[in-house]
């Protein structure tokens, strides 16, 4: 009875509204993914600000990845003064290696940092779905499955350490931190790809790769250099809303 139980009535109405909004959002996202819309989008004129919002939805994979990379950098580097200093000044391989070591120590000693790193990194894994990320997933879940790995990493276990060294010489914290540092370094390349796609309205994967590789140097030389600063930039191109 809606009159005797107004709270229940309001709750049901709110639920219906939420579902409707969610369905509308999903429908819009699916429309923006369609091939025909990608071509029409560049010819349409939108209200100020709406164009950027639509492009963010179309290019949501890279925007999501950049968001997670920024959070990883904030937590692992910016929040620690020494690591932040080394990162900003680290030109040599030794300084960079020392910064990675300090990040590994934080991973082992700080439970909150460890949980944040793992959560954000596996968010990135869901987007990238490449061989390296699959390797990390298998490494994190299959090696000595059932053992209390965090306790082992924190306090040590001679048998586990020797066996793990034989089966997989690279320890899990180092592998995770290497992957995180790699993505942080690739952040500018991701931003460059997004800018290139939105500025030149490129719809074909081949055309975008040709633009970066074969265009004359006087056309966007800095942007092309920014993209090519990552040896993995071609892997990231596949995340853009372009046709193969």
Q: Short summary of the structure?
A:
It is built from 15 helices and no strands. It is an all-alpha fold and 244 residues long.
Strand coverage percent:
under 5%
Give the count of structural domains.
Answer: 2
Quantity of strands, as a count: 0
Any idea what the radius of gyration is? 23 Å
Average pLDDT number = 78
How many helices in DSSP terms? 15
Residues in helices, as a percent range: over 70%
Shape estimate: flat
Structural category: mainly alpha
State the end-to-end distance: 56 Å
Low-pLDDT runs? 142-147
Helix-strand topology string: HHHHHHHHHHHHHHH
Describe the sheet with the most strands. none
Question: What layout of secondary structure does this protein have?
Answer:
Elements lengths: L5 H28 L1 H7 L8 H9 L1 H19 L2 H9 L3 H17 L1 H18 L2 H12 L6 H7 L2 H10 L4 H14 L1 H14 L4 H10 L6 H8 L4 H5 L7
Helix pairs in contact: 4-7, 4-11, 4-12, 5-6, 6-7, 6-11, 8-11, 12-14
How would you describe this structure to a colleague?
This protein is mainly α and 244 residues long. It has 2 domains: 44 residues, no CATH class; 194 residues, no CATH class. 77% of the residues lie in helices and 0% in strands. The chain is built from 15 helices and no strands. Helix 5 packs antiparallel against helix 6, helix 6 crosses helix 7 and helix 8 packs antiparallel against helix 11. The radius of gyration is 23 Å and the shape is flat.
Keywords:
mainly alpha, 244 residues, flat, 2 domains, 15 helices
């Amino acid at each position: 009875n809606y009159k005797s139980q107004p709270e229940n009535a309001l709750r049901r109405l709110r639920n219906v509204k939420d579902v409707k909004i969610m369905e509308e959002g999903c429908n819009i996202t699916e429309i923006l993914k369609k091939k025909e819309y990608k071509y029409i989008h560049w010819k349409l004129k939108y209200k100020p600000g709406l164009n950027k919002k639509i492009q963010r939805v179309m290019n949501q994979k890279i925007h999501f990845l950049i968001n997670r990379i920024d959070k990883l950098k904030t937590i692992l580097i910016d929040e620690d003064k020494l690591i932040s200093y080394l990162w900003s000044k680290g030109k040599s391989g030794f300084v960079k290696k020392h910064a990675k070591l300090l990040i590994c120590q934080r991973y082992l000693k700080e439970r909150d940092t460890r949980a944040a790193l793992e959560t954000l990194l596996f968010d990135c894994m869901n987007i990238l779905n490449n061989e390296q990320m699959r390797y990390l997933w298998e490494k994190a879940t299959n090696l000595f499955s059932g053992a209390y790995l965090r306790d082992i990493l924190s306090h040590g276990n001679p048998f586990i350490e020797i066996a793990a060294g034989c089966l997989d010489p690279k320890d899990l914290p180092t592998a995770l931190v290497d992957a995180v540092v790699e993505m942080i370094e690739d952040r500018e390349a991701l931003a460059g790809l997004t800018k290139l796609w939105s500025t030149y309205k490129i719809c074909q994967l081949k055309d975008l790769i040709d633009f970066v590789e074969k265009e004359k140097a006087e056309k966007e030389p800095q942007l092309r250099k920014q993209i090519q600063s990552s040896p993995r930039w071609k892997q990231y191109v596949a995340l853009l809303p372009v046709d193969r």
